[in-house]
Automatic annotation (TrEMBL):
SUPFAM superfamilies given in the database record: Homeodomain-like, Tetracyclin repressor-like, C-terminal domain
One function term, GO molecular function aspect: transcription cis-regulatory region binding
Sorted UniProt keywords: DNA-binding, Transcription, Transcription regulation
Origin organism lineage: Bacteria, Pseudomonadati, Pseudomonadota, Betaproteobacteria, Burkholderiales
Pfam families listed in its UniProt record: TetR_C_33, TetR_N
DNA-binding region listed in the record: 33-52
Domain HTH tetR-type: 10-70
InterPro entries reported for this sequence: Homeodomain-like_sf, HTH-type_TetR-like_transc_reg, HTH_TetR, MT1864/Rv1816-like_C, Tet_transcr_reg_TetR-rel_C_sf
Protein name: HTH-type transcriptional regulator BetI
Length: 204
């Protein structure tokens, strides 16, 4: 393969991912196919199959990008709060997840459809477990510091995950205005609600 061909291949894969994301933004996940992504990217229908043999592989690649950016966002939030208490680090991760979902609605949607993804062999499951392990350590530390009432670390994490996921899902599904929350204040509102949720878990 020539240098020009390698360069073209290196550019084509991200172009196909951008095209697929654009299709999801416009028409939803159901509108995505490898051929439609090729059409949107302006290449022949056969070229994308060098990278993605199926819609599932294409969506999995988008999910991998999403997971990488989410991990980066969570790690940055923890680092920024690293000189504070574990409880404040828990708060920072919740805020970071909500901001990430707000800023990346398509990636959130793709990651929320595991049945369409190659979740296990792609490494997505391992990344998810890595995130969970880190959050469990934070919750356990907050409980050990006496700031968090926690009977079970696993249950506390599941409940917190359900809370932030539900808020993000409502935002992305366009439900917030129906609850009197315009888009321009929805992120602030979601983060404030998460703070109120954490307050109820505090000891004392």
């Amino acid at each position: 393969m020539s240098v020009a061909e390698r360069t073209q291949d290196a550019l084509l894969r991200p172009a196909l991912l951008r095209a697929a994301v654009s299709l999801i933004e416009e028409s939803g996940i159901g509108a995505v196919s490898v051929r439609e992504a090729a059409k949107r990217a302006g290449v022949s229908p056969c070229e994308p199959f060098n990278f993605f043999a199926s819609k599932g592989e294409l969506l999995t690649a988008i999910a991998e990008e999403a997971m990488e950016s989410l991990v980066t966002a969570l790690q940055a939030a923890i680092l920024d709060a690293s000189h504070s208490s574990a409880m404040n680090q828990c708060r920072a991760t919740g805020h970071a997840f909500l901001r990430w979902a707000f800023d990346n609605p398509v990636h959130f949607q793709v990651m929320s459809t595991p049945a369409l993804l190659d979740f296990e062999s792609s490494g997505l499951a391992a990344s998810q477990q890595h995130i969970r392990a880190g959050l469990k350590r934070l919750i356990a530390a907050a409980a050990a510091e006496g700031d968090l009432y926690c009977v079970s670390v696993e249950d506390t994490l599941l409940a917190a995950r359900a809370f932030v996921y539900g808020l993000a899902r409502m935002q992305i599904d366009g439900q917030m205005p129906g609850w009197g929350v315009p888009r321009e204040t929805s992120l602030e509102t979601m983060q404030r609600l998460f703070d109120a949720y954490l307050f109820r878990l505090r000891r004392g």
